[in-house]
Amino acid sequence: MAESAVDGGNVSGGLVDRPAGSRAVPLILGGEAVSSGNRLLGVAGVGAMLALWVVSAQLGIVDPEVLPGPRATAEDFWQLATDGFQRVTLWEHLAMSLMRMALGLGLGGVAGVVAGLAIGSSRTIRSIVQPAFGFFRLVPVLGLLPLIFVRFGPGSMRLVSLLAVTTFFIVAIAVRDHVAGRGPMPGSSADRVDLRTVRQALPATFLALRVAAAVNWNVLVAGELISFQKGLGAMIWTARTFFQYGFVLVAIFALVGVSALVDFALRRLGDWLAG
Amino acid sequence: MLFIIWLLSEALGIADPTFFPGPIETIQGGWELATDGFQRVTLAEHVFASLRRILIGFGIGVVVGVPVGLAMGLNNTLRAIFDPLIELFRPVPPLAFIPLLILWFGIGETPAVVMLFFAAFFIMVIAARAGVTGVRLSKVHAAYSLGASKQQILRNVILPNALPEIFVGMRVAIGVCWGTLVAAELVGAQTGLGAMIWTARTFFRNELVVFGIIIIGVIGVILDLIMRKAEERFIPWRGRG
Known about the structure:
B: MetI-like fold
């Protein structure tokens, strides 16, 4: 393989890369080794930002038409949570986005693990598939988004399949690297793939899934924004057409929360499965 | 191989051409676009409009993001204050901000460029910060013991060690920016490749949609290759730290 071990790579721009062990991973998942400094200062920073928002809205420094204040946003949130907007509640949008995300991660993840194991353990398969992988790793995922306009199957499935393709490549590469890098195991031939192999590949798989989820939020929101009625992206766009900017803020906060939640869930699930 | 399957499916009439255009039809459409243009705008103009946006947005993002990231890496207080803020906003897809940006900056070039700036900014801050904090302390101490001044350490030890991370960040950022830009052009622009695809789609010109996707992919690959070459040229010491 031409890629060097230190190659950071294009995890989120390209479809394919080597997430595990790549230096690009922290750029996608954010720093986990952060909080080395004073946590209080961090809380103060976020607090100052919030205070600025509250004060500027209260004193009327910022035109509520330009940036809805905290109170207006909270009221919008309440309306979305109870009555909904255009007869769709926030929870329905959230559930729709989450379902698409889960399907994309699930389908792409399973296919990716199978493909990664096959490519990693068989020289023949690797030599056939490698050139195509090498090209697709550089294609920006979001560039493929217009494919959802080309009809092949029902609308929602087109977006899900795009999410699944992203996931597939990221997971397949991670598992391939894990299997290929493991070297011949004592007492078994290098080509043998069994349950233990799958189990050992679990940490790499779930790290790859977390990267895929982070990348896929971009794809999901963009896709929902351009061609769907439900989902957080769709909610943002409908809100815009009705000049309901408070709803846009609610959607942004919801995205912050839900992406953190999915990341946390994947991390816990991975830890739990790997024992 | 994929191309051959695609070609065969058209030749044998397996795929319905109105739903999924074949390669010959796509190439014809592409030729028409390149020479006459579609809706009186040629391919070159669309490509130029897209490239201009990404170069401005990405450029400013790098120029502003790297110093902020370096400062955060060098100063514990700054890092403690800004890390949570950055972590809070980083995971939000840049496209989610586009309605607010259009509200603030009006319709036109600015909202897309500002969005690309933010997309690149967050990635570059994290990359530059990671670059600084990744410098091995033993090197800094070695330089100090050789009598280096603070400025010399920054220029000759920390910066060279952080540059590889910064270039990784630039590669990730330009990929994200390119994809995000295309998506943004789909919903709100008159020119650019995304806008071209959107118009083609409303006229049921699927072959132009597919052609556009291929061009977007090729440009994405080229942008990445440029970043890679720049990395090889400007920091030959990469990976030997």
